[in-house]
Automatic annotation (TrEMBL):
<comment type="similarity">
    <text>Belongs to the peptidase U62 family.</text>
</comment>
<keyword id="KW-0645">Protease</keyword>
<keyword id="KW-0482">Metalloprotease</keyword>
<dbReference type="Pfam" id="PF19290">
    <property type="entry name" value="PmbA_TldD_2nd"/>
</dbReference>
<dbReference type="Pfam" id="PF01523">
    <property type="entry name" value="PmbA_TldD_1st"/>
</dbReference>
<feature type="domain" description="Metalloprotease TldD/E C-terminal">
    <location>
        <begin position="228"/>
        <end position="459"/>
    </location>
</feature>
<feature type="region of interest" description="Disordered">
    <location>
        <begin position="325"/>
        <end position="351"/>
    </location>
</feature>
<keyword id="KW-0378">Hydrolase</keyword>
<dbReference type="GO" id="GO:0008237">
    <property type="term" value="F:metallopeptidase activity"/>
</dbReference>
<dbReference type="InterPro" id="IPR036059">
    <property type="entry name" value="TldD/PmbA_sf"/>
</dbReference>
<feature type="compositionally biased region" description="Basic and acidic residues">
    <location>
        <begin position="325"/>
        <end position="338"/>
    </location>
</feature>
<feature type="domain" description="Metalloprotease TldD/E central">
    <location>
        <begin position="111"/>
        <end position="220"/>
    </location>
</feature>
<dbReference type="InterPro" id="IPR025502">
    <property type="entry name" value="TldD"/>
</dbReference>
<dbReference type="InterPro" id="IPR051463">
    <property type="entry name" value="Peptidase_U62_metallo"/>
</dbReference>
<dbReference type="Pfam" id="PF19289">
    <property type="entry name" value="PmbA_TldD_3rd"/>
</dbReference>
<dbReference type="GO" id="GO:0006508">
    <property type="term" value="P:proteolysis"/>
</dbReference>
<dbReference type="GO" id="GO:0005829">
    <property type="term" value="C:cytosol"/>
</dbReference>
Length: 472
């Protein structure tokens, strides 16, 4: 996008008044969004966003400026602005800007730009019809959303690294609202990945829609959830909301170094059951949170954060790695060129165990089975959380019983990881946009089926169940 010689001049200007490190992030992002509501496609939007962000790190401080003027003059003006925040002697640069190679590569079968808008609209309309066909009488509203993003980035820094990368992501979601008398319930399902339009070869839009609509309709017939302390089985298909929110954010290095994480000061200590290993791996093929390079030009890699219950590492960007005199492990991410990079998750998951999921359920005398997590709140400083259950069932004598609604899960993330008693051999992923410091980035998270000895379940019915997990 920009000649290397100009990038060298920009970096040299950024460090003209001193500083320890400088980099430039140049982005061209093309996106398409299609929305359908009330049976009509009401929004077809496409756009292009182009710009550059320039950063200088001086000791523990960061200066950042961005511009959508990619001329030499525009970039030099932004570099001059950030240079004034640095102190010390001018850093002489003799950059070669060597092109880095990723540790992993990805391929895309159907690039969004090669797919006519009509085909994209067709999958949205097909999903709308499929959702309404589940129950024409009870499905009152269907919202379908399609989106794709093609992001081309160029990254160069004062250490002589040069990266060119392309990221293509496609996502698809369906929300269905069902009503019967005064009772209203909502079902939601979303799929997506680091991929093009080939997403719909493995995730048929009609199936996504039917899953959301059936969940809404079945919830109309669900009974009240029990309340109290009880064993809880989190199914693999529930996805990794728990590990992402109640554990993952606390393992991001900036929160750790600020003392805002429950895991601060616990490196190499036992923080979870020996059944638990937590990994963040942005190199997974096709996953929504995957990337070849992070947004600082560091190659993505698999990072084991908790190994058989022992805290082994955190997720680092360059700034927080500098503070600890170590290297980044590829977790510096940003929403766009308008944002500075911070430590973020990519694909975070609990590693699968060896127990069959069906056996885990059989070992629970009575409790709650969670098949779909809803929204919630987490305090990263303490690890305390409250989550809604979007789809849950009673477990009675080791068998899945009736569906219940209105359940919430309350607990503490680190404590929950300590009382996990069984870990399944499956692994289920969910996708989302993770928010932090006003920035949103695409992520996925996952977990196998896990049995938690006891959680506080909030509901509207008291006294049932009050069981135990039978040890294998």
């Amino acid at each position: 996008m920009i000649e290397k010689q100009i990038l060298k001049e920009v970096l040299d200007t950024a460090l003209a008044n001193g500083g320890d490190f400088a980099d430039i992030f140049i982005e061209e992002k093309r996106s398409t969004a299609i929305g359908c509501e009330d049976g009509r496609v009401e929004r077809v939007h496409s756009g292009v966003d182009i710009g550059a962000g320039i950063r200088v790190i001086c000791r523990d401080a960061t200066a950042y400026a961005y511009t959508n003027d990619l001329s030499r003059q525009g970039l030099m003006e932004a570099a001059t602005i950030v240079s004034h925040a640095a102190q010390g002697n001018k850093k002489e640069l003799n950059l070669d800007l060597r092109t880095l190679k990723p540790l992993v590569d990805f391929s895309f079968e159907e690039r969004p730009g090669d797919v006519p808008t009509g085909r994209k609209v067709a999958v949205v309309e097909a999903a709308d019809r499929a959702a309404r066909a589940v129950d024409a009488g009870q499905i009152k509203q269907v919202i379908v959303g399609y989106g794709d993003v093609v992001q081309n980035v160029t990254i160069a820094n004062s250490e002589g690294d040069y990266v060119e990368d392309e990221r293509i992501r496609t996502r698809f979601l369906v929300q269905a609202v069902a009503a019967s008398g005064p009772t209203i319930q909502t079902g939601y399902e979303a799929v997506g990945g680091l991929c093009g339009f080939e997403l719909f070869k493995s995730c048929l839009p009609e199936q996504v829609a039917e899953t959301a609509a059936r969940r809404a309709v079945e919830m109309l017939k669900a009974g009240p959830a029990p309340a109290g302390k009880m064993p809880v089985v989190l199914a693999g298909e529930a996805g990794g909301t728990m590990v992402h929110e109640a554990c993952g954010h606390g393992l991001e290095a900036d929160l750790v170094l600020k003392g805002l994480s429950v895991y601060a000061g616990k490196k190499d200590q036992v923080v979870a059951s020996e059944e638990i290993s937590v990994i963040d791996d942005a190199t997974l093929s096709g996953r929504y949170g995957s990337y070849r390079f992070d947004d600082e030009g560091v190659p993505a890699r698999k990072v084991k954060l908790i190994d058989k219950g022992v805290l082994t590492d955190f997720m680092y960007d360059r700034l927080n790695a500098f503070k600890e005199n170590r290297g980044s492990n590829g977790h510096g991410r940003r929403e766009s060129y308008q944002h500075k990079p911070i430590p973020r998750m990519g694909n975070t998951y609990i590693a699968p165990g060896k127990t069959e999921p069906e056996k885990i359920i059989r070992e629970v005398k009575s409790g709650l089975l969670v098949k779909k997590m809803g929204g919630g709140q987490v305090n990263t400083t303490t690890g305390d959380f409250v989550f809604d259950v979007a789809e849950g069932y009673l477990i009675r004598d080791g068998e899945v019983g009736p569906m219940v609604r209105g359940a919430t899960l309350t607990g503490n993330g680190p404590e929950v990881l300590r009382i996990v008693e069984m870990v399944g051999s499956d692994l289920g992923f969910t996708i989302g946009t993770c928010g932090k410091d006003g920035q949103g980035v695409p992520v996925s998270d996952a977990q196998p089926t896990i049995a938690v000895r006891q959680l506080i379940v909030g509901g509207t019915k008291h006294g049932e169940p009050n069981g135990k997990i039978r040890r294998i």
